[in-house]
Amino acid sequence: MEAPWNRSRATFSDGRTAAIHDVEVDIAPEGIGIEGDDVSVHWGEAGLEVVDAPANAKALRLGHADHDGARLLLEGEALVAEVREALPGLLARRPDSRRYDLKKLGVWGGAVAALAALFFLFLPAIVSGVAALIPQSVEKRLGDQALAAFSQFFDGMENECREREGQQALDWMVVQIMDGARIERGADVRVVPVDMVNAVAFPGGRVLIFDGLIQQAESAEEVAGVVAHELGHVEYRHGMERMVRDSAISAVLSVFAPGAAGDIGSEFGGALLTQSYGRDAEREADAFAVETLNRIGVTTGGMASFFERMAQKHDAGQGGSLMQYLASHPAPTERAGTIAARGTGDERILSDAEWRALKAICPKD
C-alpha cells in the first residue's frame, strides 16, 4: 500500500550546486524552516519571494532575497493552502512584481551600460562603412523622402525660383564650384522662396538654398561659400551617414524601449531644420569649401565675413532666423577665423551684374 503523502515535505535547491534535496518544512507566520540532509536554513518572511505560482494552486516555487538562486518547491493543494493561511501576504506578491535582487539589477545595468558605451564608441566607424555601401540610387530615393518630410515645415518649398538671369548666375556659380570641388557625382542646387536664412543638403545630391540667405548675403562670395559647404556634405555623404546613424540608434531603442523609434525619413527631415549633422561634419564641410574655393582662386573672405556678421548679430541678440543656419555648426567666431586663415584666393565668383541677377532669382510679388 502506498504511503500517505506527507504535506510537510518539499524539494530544495541551494542555488550553488546541482543537488536537489528532499526536505521537511515548518511553515509559520515568521517564515519557513527548511531541514534535510546537509540542509538547515530558515527563510524569514520579509525576504520570501514567489518565483512561480501556477493557476491550479497545486504547487508553489519560492525564493528568498538573502539566498541568491536558492529555490523551494512546495507541491500539493494542502501544502499551498497551509502557506496561504500562515503567510497570507506572500501569495499577493505576484511573480512579475516581486522585489528584485539589487545585486542582479546592478550587474545587469552595468552590462547594458558597457554595451551601450561600446555601441556609441564604434558607431562612427560603423556608420561610415555602412553608408559607403549604400548605392547612390537608394541614397537618392531616401533623399527624396527626406525632402518631402522637410517640405512640410515650410510654405513655398514646392515653388523653385527660376528667374532666367538669376538662374544663369546660379548655374555659373555652381559650375565653377563643382570644377573646384572635383565632385564626380552630379549635384542639383536650387533656390526656394523661403525667407529663412538657411541652406540644406539632402542625401543624393539635392541642395536647397533659401532665398532669405541670398537676401541677407552681402556678396556672391558669401553665397558661394555656403554652396561649397553644402556640396561638402554631399561629397562626404553626411546626410546618408546621419540616416544610417539614426536608424542604428532607433533599432537599439526599439530593443530597450519598444515604440521609441519613429519614422527615420520624417525624423531626418525634421533634423535638417537645424542642420544637425554634428559639429565634426560641419568642420569637415567647411574645410571642403575652403579647399574648393582655393582651387578656383575665389576668396574665402566672403564666407568668413558671413560668419563674422552672424556672430555679431548673435552677440547683439539680433540673430532671429539668421541663427537657424548656425544651430549646430561650430561657433561662428571660431569658424570665421579658421576659414579666413586657410583661404588663398582673391578672385570674385560673379560679376556685379550676375550678383544682382542672383539676388533677384525669386521674383517678388
Automatic annotation (TrEMBL):
Superkingdom of source: Bacteria
Keywords, ordered alphabetically: Hydrolase, Membrane, Metal-binding, Metalloprotease, Protease, Transmembrane, Transmembrane helix, Zinc
Co-factor(s): Zn(2+)
GO molecular function: metal ion binding; metalloendopeptidase activity
Residue ranges constituting the Peptidase M48 domain according to the UniProt record: 188-339
UniProt keyword Isomerase present: no
Cofactor annotation comment: Binds 1 zinc ion per subunit.
Database matches in Gene3D superfamilies: Metalloproteases ('zincins'), catalytic domain
Transmembrane feature ranges: 107-134
Family, as annotated: Belongs to the peptidase M48 family.
Protein name: Peptidase M48 domain-containing protein
Organism, scientific name: Minwuia thermotolerans
Lineage: Bacteria, Pseudomonadati, Pseudomonadota, Alphaproteobacteria, Minwuiales
